[in-house]
Specification:
Layout (H helix, E strand, L loop, with lengths): L5 H4 L10 H8 L5 E2 L11 H11 L12 H11 L6 E4 L1 H13 L5 E5 L4 H9 L3 E5 L8 H6 L5 E7 L11 H10 L5 E5 L18 H4 L3 E6 L12 E4 L2 H10 L7 H11 L2 H24 L4 E2 L5 E5 L5 H10 L2 E2 L1 E2 L4 E5 L3 H18 L1
Parallel strand pairs: 1-11, 3-4, 3-5, 5-6, 6-7
Antiparallel strand pairs: 2-8, 7-8, 9-10, 10-13, 12-13
Helix pairs in contact: 3-11, 5-6, 5-10
């Protein structure tokens, strides 16, 4: 039997949140809420739906624009940067894989914070790099410890801000201080998939222009979260044109499909929809904080669209399975920690009702 590369055997396949239909069938349920994958609970902008409908009327028999020029031009105008500084990808996940493929060799080292997005570790490991996990400080990135891990072999530092799954945030002064200390031959991947949900005025400003001062910084963004385009898979990378050129050689041809490109352009034009999603998320977080306080469950205040909470004495997988039977899908984490996506108020209240029920049964 043919054997893949040793690095592949050491990596577990990514397991996404369970689809609603799976859970309905498995437990014979009529109503299920999915609060596991940080998707947009308000769906997709009406402007996007119209743009997609209009496009589909003419058929989808032609290949998409392989250079994604229209959406790159739209983003370049929005951020006042060059189109050569933007690479469109098949979601932010695709961007992370492309970056690892382009810049990591066997024996290189990468730094990843504990309790951060698993794909940083997986993509690095697949390329044969050594992953160094840096402990967090009360579920916040510890940039001092991270810098202590930097050496001549460090090729990439993965930073997620706000962080997934903890929802915690790095403040601007800390980020800038860290970037300025890191050697220029070490690539810093600054992933801000959840940036649009941030309410703190201490969040780093002008992150899309980091590359203009720091050539070794790439900013990764996505249309999957607040824009509600997770099902179409489109994201992008902003950075120095030479690094973007290297990444462009690594990506698959036509990696951003035609519908995703059309949708992304329309999504950027619907500021009212974005405002509504943002406000719904804020309201939902405040409600859920009170739920956790009422139930005496430790939680972390979030700058994203998800909340990291603990069920002391109850393993997260046990809690996940109990909630699933009640029609609620969440995302189990290590130990007794769980990540919960903020939903609509109806979904949040349904979760609260079922959470209280299963906690009584499990204790």
């Amino acid at each position: 039997m043919l054997k893949p590369r040793d690095e592949i055997l050491k990596v577990a396949a990514y397991v996404p949140g369970k689809p609603i239909e799976y859970v309905k069938r498995e437990f014979n349920l009529d109503y299920v809420v999915k609060l596991a994958s940080n998707e947009n609970p308000l769906g997709t902008s009406p402007k996007v739906i119209k743009a997609l409908t209009d496009y589909i009327k003419n058929g989808v028999n032609f290949y998409p624009d392989g250079s994604s020029l229209n959406i790159r031009t739209k983003l370049a105008e929005k951020y006042k940067i060059g189109v050569e500084n933007i690479l469109i990808t098949n979601g932010a996940d695709d961007a992370l894989g492309i970056i690892a493929q382009a810049y990591l060799n066997e024996g290189d080292e990468v730094l990843v914070s504990e309790y951060s997005f698993q794909r940083y570790t997986d993509n690095s490991s697949i390329m044969g790099a050594k992953v160094k996990l840096v402990p967090m400080d009360n579920f916040h990135f510890d940039l001092d410890k991270m810098f202590e891990g930097v050496n001549e072999k460090t090729k990439i530092i993965w930073l997620c801000n706000p962080n997934n799954p903890t929802g915690t945030m790095l403040e601007e002064d800390k980020v800038i201080e860290f970037i300025e200390k890191v050697p220029k031959d070490t690539l810093i991947v600054y992933d801000e998939a959840y940036r649009e949900y941030v309410s703190s005025d201490k969040y780093p400003k002008d992150t899309v222009h980091f590359f203009q001062k720091y050539e070794n910084v790439l900013t990764v963004k996505t249309f999957s979260k607040i824009y509600g385009l997770a099902g179409l898979r489109i994201g992008y990378v902003i950075g120095n044109k030479d690094i973007i050129s290297a990444l462009d050689k690594t990506r698959q041809p036509f990696n951003a499909n035609a519908l995703a490109q059309v949708a992304a352009i329309a999504a950027l034009d619907d500021e009212d929809f974005i405002k509504k999603v943002y406000e719904t998320n804020l309201e939902g977080k405040e409600y859920l904080y009170k739920v956790f306080e009422k139930l005496n469950l430790p939680y972390i205040k979030s700058e994203a669209n998800h909340i990291f909470f603990e069920s002391p004495g109850i393993d997260s997988k046990v809690l996940f399975e109990a909630l699933e039977k009640e029609g609620v899908i969440v995302r189990p984490q290590k130990g007794s920690y769980t990540r919960l996506t903020v939903g609509t108020m109806e979904e949040n209240k349904f979760f609260a009702e079922k959470l209280e029920k299963v906690l009584k049964e499990l204790k």
